[in-house]
Amino acid sequence: MAFHSTRRLLSQCTNRAIVYSQNGDPAKVLTAVSFRPLPPPAPNTVNVKFLLAPINPADLNVIEGVYPAKPSPTPGLTAEPVFVGGNEGLARVTSIGDGVSGLSRDDWVVMTKAQIGTWCTGKNVGVHDIVKVPRVDGLTEVHAATMTVNPPTAYNMLKDFVPLQEGDWVIQNGANSAVGQAVIQIAASRGLKTLNFVRPRENLSELIKQLEDLGATKVLTYDALTDKSLRNDVKEWTGGKNISLALNCVGGKETTLMTRLLGNNAHLVSYGAMSKQPLSLPTSLFIFKNLTAHGFWQSQWYLTRPREEQEQVMNTLVNLMGQGKLKPPKHEIVSISAEDSDEEAGQKVRDVITKISEGQQGKKNLLRLESSES
Ligand SMILES: NC(=O)c1ccc[n+]([C@@H]2O[C@H](COP(=O)([O-])OP(=O)(O)OC[C@H]3O[C@@H](n4cnc5c(N)ncnc54)[C@H](OP(=O)(O)O)[C@@H]3O)[C@@H](O)[C@H]2O)c1
Question: Domain named Enoyl reductase (ER): which ranges (predicted)?
C-alpha cells in the first residue's frame, strides 16, 4: 500500500490511519498516512470501517512507551514499520470473509483484542478480535465507541471487591473522568450513594451540577479533604454508616487523605495514576482499620474472564445505556474530513492531544476519520 504525504488522491487513497513509528510525546510523534482500499477479507476475517474512536489517557501512555500493553506494528502502511494509535472504538462491518458466522454487513462491532489500532478509517480484523454490539433503542455511536474500557472498569470495581447493598456509600476521586462518570451512574442505578472528589476549577458549580445530574450524591473538591470539618459532615451524610469502598483514579496525597474517610475493613481500589504522584498509605490504616489496597486493570479482566462473562457484562451495560441510566461521557467529536491532507489530519490530532495534555478539558475526545470508502 502506498504512502501519500501530500494532498490526497481520493481515487486511490480511500483510507487513513493515525500512526507513529517511535515512542515519544504523542503531540509530536503522531502523523497521518493514507492507504489504498482494503482487499477482500481472508477467511474468518471481516473488513470494518471505524465510526468513532476515543482518545483515552492510556492511549497516550502507549504512544509514550510507558504502558505495559504494547501494540504490534501494522504492516504495509508505510515503508517503515508503524503502529496505529487507539485501543477502543466502534466499527461497522463492511465485508465478510468465508467461514464467518453470526455477523452481517453493517453490524456494529467493538474490539476485544487490546491495542488493535482503532485510529484509522478501515481495517481487516479476525472474528475473534471483535464482538458484535447488540443494537438496542437509545444506544448511540458514542455509547458504543466508549463501552469496552471505562464502563466495565466502573461496573467491575463496584461489583468485585465489596458486596455493596442499596444505600451504601462509595468514595472516588477523579470523579469527572469517564470512569468516574460511569461509577456515579452505575452506582446510582444500584441505589448506592457516591461521595465524589474533583480538582478545583473556575467552573466548579457547572461541573457539580453535571455530576449531580448523573446521580452523584455529593461532589467536593480535593481542597475539602484538608478541612477538619469534613469527617463530621461525612458522618452526618452517611448517618454514621461505614464507607467500605474507595476508587482511586489519581494517586498522590489526595488519595491518602480520601482513604482516611474509609471505615473498618474497607477496600481501596486503584485503577489510575493521573496525578503521576506515588500513593502513600499510613500503616495505621492497615493495622487498626484492616484496610485492604488493590489494583484493578480491565485489560487483565478481559484476558482472564471467559467470553460468556464478558458478553454478559457488555449486555448489562448496553441495557443500562438503552434505558438512559448510563449516559456516554461528556465528549467532543473531532472530525477529520476525507479531503484533509495527511499533514492537516496529523496536525488536527496533535492539536487535540496538546489540549488534552493541558488537563481540565472536561470532555472525552473521539476521532471520526472520514473515508471515501463505504
Ligand atoms: N485500570 C484500568 O483498567 C483502567 C480502565 C480505564 C481507565 N483507566 C485509567 O483511569 C484514568 C481515567 O481514565 P478516563 O478515560 O476516565 O479519563 P478522562 O475521561 O480522560 O479523564 C481524566 C481525568 O483525570 C483527571 N486528571 C488529569 N490530570 C490530572 C492531574 N494531574 N491530577 C489529578 N487529576 C488529573 C481529570 O481531571 P480534570 O478534569 O481536573 O483535568 C479527569 O478527571 C486514566 O488514568 C486511565 O488510564 C484505568
Answer: 28-367
Regarding the beta carbon of 147 and ligand 1, being less than 6 Å apart is answered no
Which ligand 1 atom is at minimum distance from the Cα of 150?
6
> At how many degrees (to 10) do helices 204-214 and 178-189 cross?
40
Please, which residues bridge with residue 251 across strands? 277
Cα three-residue angle 352-183-293, rounded to 5 degrees: 105
Q: Which atom of ligand 1 is nearest to the CA of 201?
A: 40
Which residue numbers are catalytic?
A: 67
Assigned CATH topology for domain 150-299: Rossmann fold (3.40.50)
Q: Ligand 1 pocket, 179 CB below 6 A?
A: yes
Domain with CATH 3.40.50.720 in the chain: 150-299
Maximum CA pair distance of the chain?
70
Residue (of 66, 98, 69, 76) closest to 19 by Cα position: 76
* Local structure of 11: helix, strand or coil: coil
Contact 176, 362 (CB under 8 A): yes
CA 359 to ligand 1 center in whole angstroms: 10
Residue span(s) of the chain under CATH 3.90.180.10 come to 15-146+329-369
Distances (CA, A) of 126 to 47, 49, 94, 148: 9, 14, 13, 18
Ligand 1 contact via 226 beta carbon (within 6 Å):
no
How do residues 173-232 score in pLDDT, each as one tens digit? 999 999 999 999 999 999 999 999 999 999 999 999 999 999 999 999 999 999 999 999
What per-residue confidence (pLDDT) applies to 8? 55
Question: Does the C-beta of 298 come closer than 6 Å to ligand 1?
Answer: yes
Write the residue with the smallest CA distance to atom 47 of ligand 1.
58
| Span from the CA of 56 to the centroid of ligand 1 (angstroms) | 8
365 lines ligand 1 (CB under 6 A): no
> Would you list the DSSP string of 81-144?
-BEE--S--EEEEEEE-TT--S--TT-EEEE-STT---SBSEEEEEGGGEEEPP--TT--HHHH
| Mean per-residue pLDDT over the chain, rounded | 95
Residues forming beta bridges with residue 82, ordered by sequence position: 74
Name which residue sits closest to atom 32 of ligand 1, judged by CA: 275
In CATH, what number does 15-146+329-369 get?
Answer: 3.90.180.10
